[in-house]
Amino acid sequence: MRPFWLQxxxxxxxxxxxxxxxxxxxxxxxxIGGGYTGLWTALMLKRARPDLDVLLIEADLCGAGASGRNxxxxxxxxxxxxxxxxxxxxxxxxxxxxxxxxxxxxxGAFCQAEGIECDFRLDGTLYTATNTAQIGSTDAVxxxxxxxxxxxxxxxxLQQVQRLAGSQRHLEGWFSPIAATVQxxxxxxxxxxxxxxxxxxxxxxxxxxxLEHGAPAQVHTAGGRVRADRVVLGLNAWxxxxxxxxxxxxxxxxSDMVITEPCPQALADIGLSSGISVLDSRLFVHYYRNTPxxxxxxxxxxxxxxxxxxxxxxxxxxxPYCDLLQRTLAQFFPTLAEVPLAASxxxxxxxxxxxxxxxxxxxxxxxxxxxxxxxxxGVGPCHMGGQILCSLALGLDNPWTRSPLVxxxxxxxPPEPIRYLGSLLVRDAIRRKERAEDRGLRPLALDVRLxxxxxxxxxxDKG
Length: 463
Ligand SMILES: Cc1cc2nc3c(=O)[nH]c(=O)nc-3n(C[C@H](O)[C@H](O)[C@H](O)COP(=O)(O)OP(=O)(O)OC[C@H]3O[C@@H](n4cnc5c(N)ncnc54)[C@H](O)[C@@H]3O)c2cc1C
Prior knowledge:
Blueprint: H1 4-12, E1 23-32, H2 36-48, E2 54-57, E3 73-74, H3 81-88, H4 90-114, E4 125-129, H5 139-147, E5 154-155, H6 158-165, E6 172-176, E7 180-181, H7 184-197, E8 201-203, E9 208-212, E10 217-221, E11 224-233, H8 239-242, E12 250-260, H9 264-270, E13 277-279, E14 286-290, E15 296-305, H10 322-332, E16 341-352, E17 358-361, E18 368-372, H11 381-393, H12 418-438, H13 445-455
Parallel strand pairs: 1-2, 1-11, 2-8, 4-13, 11-18
Antiparallel strand pairs: 3-7, 4-6, 5-6, 9-10, 10-11, 12-15, 12-16, 13-14, 14-15, 17-18
Helix pairs in contact: 1-7, 2-7, 2-11, 3-4, 12-13
The protein binds flavin-adenine dinucleotide.
The site of flavin-adenine dinucleotide has 44 residues, from α2, β12 and β16.
């Protein structure tokens, strides 16, 4: 099943598949994975060295993974400031917040320069509370950002919050103008087009079956082989399965979404007319936004977990949580309760222990690089990932290659079956806790304690 956004992008702009690799190929840099990570890396390599011979292989179609099915909310890392500071120190934390904000503008500028029409709207984001227990949960991080001169947030009067967000459910709201929404499928397909135009050779329908280390490294596929001086792996949720060394570095978890049929007048009536994204302060957040053609999309993370990194078929099917999301949508927007849904879907997010992506050299090899672990928040950050992987592949010495982000995974989950069972235990505790809070009740102390296991990775993760 093609997710809504990717299908819409393909319908509006049908393009021939880049033919699968047949036979042997040689290149300077071979990129595996045609999502944002792989494509931004390819584009940045070409920008730095237009003569570089870059070849990208993608198992399915570019955008078939998370990049063609996400919520399209491009957010900065400002809400992750405490995690960044704790792990990397204040200086690097500040640099990364600033870079993550820069990436959002850079994505918009790139799309404009390349004629990529992906509904990029730099209309900001609202972090809200949808029950009294959530009130105040954004205050500390905004205060810390303010202290360091990094804050783009301002608290809005409640009436304005409810108007901007189109819902009376919100009880407070912090607004940052440095956030955008995009049609994610159009963005990833646009990046593919730009990469092709710059001379990147792309083979779709070409899964890597084996990677053989060496100089050159050899990337094996069903129909051929690529010999490459350098290899970049941008495999997201598929990485852990293909490279067992990473099996405990991420937990693969779904984010589920629904989108309505167009209802522009109903959205205008409730005031939800800008491209703003709205996120509440749950551990597995509710997030929503509209589309320029007058639809409403709502998503929620943390539902289905993959055992041992194996992606079950459900990750590529209509969301099993569709009814729940539809009820949530009706609670947020009573006047939209009867608007039919156009689609529901879900997809795999690669949640790391820290909630941050990590990068490095595979098996200590000097010429094989990887990056994943975006934890459900990659639309903006994959642009940083591209800069990191490009810098690593070019052997540069710069703030990206010196960043602690390139030290590989910073923590491991317990082995199976403990991780899977533990994930379900924590997920169910969070659900009970948040259900109680929604009803104004005091949650069980045990549920609060279990929920803390997931809280460590910080706010605004959609996986
Ligand atoms: C439902 C959902 C909602 C989300 N919402 C948001 C959001 O609103 N905001 C946000 O910031 N982030 C969001 N995210 C996260 C974001 O989509 C990801 O972090 C981002 O797309 C990751 O890009 P990527 O290129 O690393 O991975 P992907 O886009 O998954 O690309 C990896 C690619 O590798 C390919 N591949 C796998 N194995 C092989 C192989 N052996 N050989 C060749 N190719 C292979 C796959 O087919 C895939 O295309 C969401 C994620 C999901 C699933």
